[in-house]
Amino acid sequence: MKEKLEALLGNKIKKVHFIGIGGSSMSGLASILLKNGISVSGSDMKSSAYTEKLQAKGADIFIGHQGSNIEPSCSLVVYTAAISKDNPELLAAQGLKIPTMERSAFLGLLTETFPHTIAVAGTHGKTTTSSLIATILYEGDLDPTVSVGGIISTFKSNFHVGAGNYFVTEACEYVDSFLRSRHNIGIILNIEHEHVDYFKSLDQVKESFRKFAEIIPSDGYLIVNGDSPVVLDVTKGLNCQIIKTGLGEHNDYHAKNITYDDFGRPSYDVYKNGKLWQRFKLNIPGEHNVMNSLAAIACADICGVPAQTIAESLTGFSGAGRRFELRGVANGITVVEDYAHHPTEVAVTINACKNYKANNLIVVFQPHTFSRTFHFFDEIVEALRGTDHLIVSDIYSDREKNTYPVDHGDLAKAAGERLNIPAKHISDFDDIVNEVSSIAKPGDFVLVAGAGTINQVAYKLVEHLNQKK
After folding, report:
1. Regarding beta strands 333-338 and 325-330, do their DSSP bridges make them parallel or antiparallel, or are they unpaired?
2. 276 and 147 within one domain
3. pLDDT tens sequence across 133-191
């Protein structure tokens, strides 16, 4: 990889510095470089499990952003989209005439170093689907290199450096990041209006996904949700081969005879080109994961993995980090956390919870960004339907200030009134833990949902409930 990167960059690589190295994607990219013998340094505002692991592997980690963190011998500086133009390290790199590159551009550069890149795109389900594909290819002896936004149970990491020809990565549409990728297998799971601080309309989102699809060469493949008219509209007239997956019989791969066990985990038959092909069982819950797995199944089949190996891999896959992840069962109370933050994600996650044999569903929800909360306010409230008791934390936003007419307590108030359920807004995480502990009874199910810091509540709650034994 080092030689290929040097050829693409046009200069020798001594060290790569990452500004914001503690992020899930950035830490994975840094780890891939370390595994390939490239020196790495990086900074972040606070220490984390990611930064500690990188330091243990030999990376030079700095807490806080300072110009002095940039060594003159550094060959390249990679930064996240969240870094401001006046970041002291970015300014220092520019002053030293060190090349700089935004994260998505660097990821795109990495995709060019592999014979085959599989890029998984969609408004929802990217991490789970890319993790499924990575697991299946690994179990199928194709040993891919992988970079995703969550911890993959198979590797117990957000990355894997393989010896094979495949690179599996998430392809995020935010600020058109995925247009930097050079992939010959692309996946579009779904398309909705999202990231409203960048995309002003669904048409703009569709235009971006169309450009993502057009990157695929004529001998490549695009795997799409064939049940989505929006997705199918984006694929019209493309030169690559289109593979459709879904529940409808018109798809190239479609699922039938879906059944669920007591934990909401589905089993189903897959028909390939209209003929019964293989029965599969998932170890992760919900119909939405049937859809995610169909894309992974089609991708693995294209790559030549036998159907039986695919089936065994799916059964053994226990999920990606923060995607319906069991935090514990204490005093008969089940606590699960999920990354859901878009209203569609919240709705399907709550629906998956309903497949469990539980008494009451208690949901702790952290709204994500002021813009999303404002623009999708009614949709979020409706997505919370089915909840027996709701607690809403403050709105989490790490990239924008509140310039919208929405307040932290508005969602809880609206949900309580419209859904006729007990609903509270509580800011402090310890207070949330105490509130849930006071109302949860044996046999209840607690979902902690959100893409920000709310997962801390899940850990604290399990610990608190265990102390009450």
Report:
1. antiparallel
2. yes
3. 999 999 999 999 999 988 888 898 889 999 999 999 999 888 888 999 999 999 999 99
Based on the fold, state whether residues 262 and 346 are members of the same structural domain: no
Of 327, 325, 326, nearest to 462 by C-alpha is 327
d(CA 298, CA 308): 13
Overall domain count for the chain: 3
SS3 call for 419: helix
Supply the pTM of this predicted model: 0.82
Q: 379 lies in a domain?
A: yes
pLDDT band with cut points at 50, 70 and 90 for residue 198: confident
**Which pLDDT does position 158 carry in this prediction?**
87
Query: Percent of the chain at pLDDT above 90?
Result: 77
Looking at the structure, tell me whether residues 385 and 419 fall in a common domain: yes
Looking at the structure, tell me whether residues 353 and 438 fall in a common domain: yes
396 DSSP β-pair partners: 368
Domain that holds residue 350: 325-467
Kindly list the catalytic residues: 126-127, 170
Flag whether 107 is in a domain: no
User: Is residue 228 helix, strand or coil?
Assistant: coil
15-19/76-79 β-pairing: parallel
- Residue 277 forms part of a structural domain: yes
- If you write DSSP's letter for every residue of 321-361 in order, what string do you get? TTSSEEEEEETTEEEEEE---SHHHHHHHHHHHHTB--S-E
